[in-house]
Amino acid sequence: MKKAYLLLADGTLFEGVSVGAEGASIAEIVFNTGMAGYQEVLTDPSYYGQSVCMTYPLIGNYGLNADDFESRKCWVSGFIMREACDYPSNWRCDRSLDAYLKKEGVVGLAGIDTRRLTRILRNSGVMNGILYSESHEPDEAMIEQMKAYKVTGAVKAVTICEPEVYPATTEQKHRVALLDFGVKRNIQRELCARGCEVTVMPAYTDPQTILNGGYDGVMLSNGPGDPSENTEIIENLKVLIGSGMPIFGICLGHQLLALAIGAETRKMKFGHRGVNHPVKDLAKDRTYITSQNHGYAVVGDTVNPEIARVSHININDNSCEGIEHINAPIFTVQYHPEVKPGPQDTAYLFDQFVSLMDEKKGGAQ
Ligand SMILES: NC(=O)CC[C@H](N)C(=O)O
């Protein structure tokens, strides 16, 4: 068995065994507390530029399958786990984790104490690191490069180049423009299942193209990187906000919309990544268990109450988890309603978006 290592920016070195591809990879190291869902993690474009440590100790047990990919490829820079399963068992499984990581050229590390790594990241905050396999040891220059690393140009790196149209899978009621900042497929599926024809559009699409395209609503997707970096997109969103079009934003889409209405975002110490984050819907006075993957957050106090209200908060740390526009049919959430780790969850938000489009159409008739 080949060895592999993780060197953190603070000098801590972990030694384990190599899984997946061999090589060396610089990234921001983050942890995810989900007990399952590693296939969705690997293919979620929001992890671009990051290596993910799964805190659940057994990863790969049910392999990977053709249905659960969230996008066209694996986006993580590296993958870290306590124990990687060699012999997956599941009726849908058609490949192993090791084979998938090899095919995607992603370096993996198993056999380390992931609890120790998670404690370091929780105490010091997310940190850069190099994941490397035996005989790919980094030199001084690479170590310096790792220390200075920052995820940049992320949306540009993951968005599609040409629009793609997906038909409604029930009787068509609406046409939705889905801006792809790094979209997870399940967002598009949830909309198609509710009678929406979905046009996935490149992140930098001119807002006039959307306004002239005969769409009933705009969906702003999740995506990677620092939200405040996306100045051109934020300007485009200002135009869409002013148009009166129904808009629903998820994760990066939520952060970009908040920036477009003058609020601020901040980098969190170690973010929220997992499938059991409690979020309270303030209007309903009800708390939901949500799936999350973000390292930045909207600063709730900077949301101008004359423009929007904070609609959701995280019960663990009181951070802003959603906003709702006061005068326009616009709402956003920081978490992922397209993910359903339990039977009930928050997919009702897609119904809410469809209702806004129904109302808008009804009013226009
Ligand atoms: N999943 C997302 O959309 C993440 C948003 C942003 N890149 C963050 O880390 O906060």
Q: Roughly what fraction of the amino acids lie in strands?
A: 25-35%
By DSSP (H or I, 4+ residues per run), the number of helices equals: 10
CATH class descriptor name of the largest domain: Alpha Beta
Low-confidence stretches: none
Q: Based on Cα principal axes, name the global outline.
A: globular
Quickly give the structural class: alpha/beta
Fourth-level CATH superfamily of the largest domain: Class I glutamine amidotransferase (GATase) domain
Bound molecules: glutamine
Structure, briefly:
This protein has about 375 residues and is α/β, with parallel strands linked by helices. It is about 25% helix and about 30% strand. It has 2 domains: about 150 residues, Glucose Oxidase, domain 1, CATH 3.50.30.20; about 210 residues, 3-Layer(aba) Sandwich (Rossmann fold), CATH 3.40.50.880.
Walk me through what this model shows.
Residues 2-132 form the Carbamoyl-phosphate synthase small subunit N-terminal domain. Composed of two chains; the small (or glutamine) chain promotes the hydrolysis of glutamine to ammonia, which is used by the large (or ammonia) chain to synthesize carbamoyl phosphate. Tetramer of heterodimers (alpha,beta)4. It catalyses: hydrogencarbonate + L-glutamine + 2 ATP + H2O = carbamoyl phosphate + L-glutamate + 2 ADP + phosphate + 2 H(+); L-glutamine + H2O = L-glutamate + NH4(+). The structure is a single chain. The protein contains ten helices and 19 strands. With 365 residues, the chain is an alpha/beta fold. It folds into two domains: 3-151, Glucose Oxidase, domain 1 (3-Layer(bba) Sandwich), CATH 3.50.30.20; 155-364, Rossmann fold (3-Layer(aba) Sandwich). The strands form three sheets. Strands 10-12-11-13-14-19-18-17-15-16 form a ten-stranded mixed beta sheet, with helices on both faces. Strands 1-2-8-6-4-3-9 form a seven-stranded mixed barrel. β18 (320-325) and β19 (330-333) form a beta hairpin. α8 (231-242) packs across α9 (252-260). The longest helix has 17 residues, at 348-364. The structure holds glutamine. Glutamine is lined by residues 46, 222-225, 227, 251-252, 255, 293-296.
